[in-house]
């Protein structure tokens, strides 16, 4: 009787563990490079040399300009109207993919090259690490929570994690300002990739039901479509090597793919917007999801700024301040009273205290 209960308990435990297994992958490793138009990336020999071991996503888009909103979009499912690269903290009542992962006991880390210390909150370090390229530190729901923030680590931690056979289920990797091409060129970034990526792709503690997503945060040219060169790599796409998937995808697709893979539910933001949330076909098929057929004619332009609470205060000046970036059409520009932002910040601080 006792034995039988123990056996059935063990079965229940095994079933529960299995229920949370990923449909396609057990690990996802996301790498963002910087500021390169699709066409330019597609001409880079070192970058395209990865394509024969990959699925090329040739209809994949950043969601706005400049950099920072494209980073907070992948972790939080929106960029809340942000159209600058300044120091921002999103109030603690804003959830991210971390909330969804934790509910299923899935582990995560943000590996940041040249981050000076775990959970470093500063704007930059050594001119190599920049907060604007860290998609988790900007959310107070992560940054002000000691347990969560301990998962924002210097990239050197990756080797340690691999030697302990402990790759997190969800990883976001940010190369430094040189390696990601930001201050350099796509040729510099791809030369770096040529030394960084191949050893990982052959490492058994890295490649173990792993999907690698290699993409760029945004195109370099603002007044064209925001298309970026994107590859899916890893053992889970082995049967699809050297193929092209031309489904319309965006950075929100990474989030919705993660959600579909592990049945995480959603954040109720752009990850539920059927115009921009197509799930990578390899996972969509396994999850029984039919993607939206977004064609050239009905594809949204993703080079402007949608409204949101992080939109800048309205300016009465007709000329843009020096050094400012294009910000989309005047119609898409919604001003939010500063008092709202102050209330939100206070609420965030309060939520973090309780
Ligand atoms: C999460 O990662 C761990 C460590 O690699 C692995 O053992 C586990 O199977 C993964 N879980 C899921 C549900 O993918
Ligand atoms: C997560 O882990 C806790 C503690 O081990 C367990 O009670 C819970 O059932 C797990 N949740 C899932 C979704 O596996
Ligand atoms: C990279 O460029 C930024 C400006 O975007 C600059 O502040 C920083 O010093 C540069 N870093 C290096 C290592 O060149
Ligand atoms: C802080 O993070 C831990 C685990 O990562 C989580 O269990 C807890 O709910 C979080 N606290 C708050 C206030 O969000
Ligand atoms: C994987 O990488 C880690 C860290 O570099 C290393 O310790 C480990 O030996 C590697 N494993 C294999 C099978 O190459
Ligand atoms: C490709 O990368 C290697 C280093 O990994 C470098 O030596 C080579 O010059 C690069 N090729 C091009 C065309 O940039
Ligand atoms: C691969 O992951 C499974 C659990 O998902 C684990 O049991 C196995 O040890 C891992 N293999 C290697 C080589 O790390
Ligand atoms: C977005 O791209 C379209 C053409 O693809 C262009 O007409 C429009 O001006 C661009 N918008 C911005 C804000 O640059
Ligand atoms: C990849 O596909 C192209 C044709 O699309 C072919 O020329 C090339 O040989 C293939 N490479 C490999 C490694 O299979
Ligand atoms: C869905 O995304 C499109 C493209 O960005 C946008 O125009 C539309 O407003 C979004 N819908 C909602 C409900 O957010
Ligand atoms: C998507 O729609 C276009 C017409 O709008 C059609 O030509 C094409 O075959 C459709 N593709 C799929 C995969 O349904
Ligand atoms: C966060 O709190 C602010 C202030 O109370 C509120 O206006 C906002 O709607 C909240 N946002 C979310 C996502 O709960």
From TrEMBL:
Residues 1-17 form the signal peptide. GO terms for molecular function: hydrolase activity, acting on ester bonds. Keywords: Hydrolase, Signal. Residues 307-327 are annotated as: Disordered. Residues 311-327 have a biased composition (Low complexity). One of its GO terms (biological process) is phospholipid catabolic process. Transmembrane segments: none annotated. This is Phosphatidylinositol-3-phosphatase.
